[in-house]
Specification:
With 78 residues, the chain is of the alpha+beta class. It has helices spanning 5-17, 34-47, and strands at 52-53, 56-60, 63-67, 75-76.
Length: 78
């Protein structure tokens, strides 16, 4: 029933741990240094918290609505 918070935690951690800097051929300009990405990934790791459900506020143009907890949009991980 619903989405398991520990599964979300595992998936978020896996995405961060397996991040690969992509440098496609044919780009114009000077690429950002690898340290930019490495430091960003480390900042994401440092910001992780034990996941929990929270109310979410969704904005869609001029419409604003509050969603109840336990929706896929309200799992907080950082």
């Amino acid at each position: 029933m619903g989405v398991d918070l520990q599964e979300i935690r595992r998936l978020v951690r896996m995405e961060i741990d397996t991040y690969v800097i992509e440098r496609p051929e044919g780009l114009v300009g000077t690429p950002l240094p690898d340290t930019f990405f490495v430091e960003g990934v480390q900042a994401m790791k440092d910001a992780l918290v034990e996941p929990y459900w929270a109310d979410a506020i969704v904005h869609s143009g001029s419409t604003r609505m509050r969603l109840p907890p336990l929706t896929p949009w309200s799992a907080t991980t950082a």
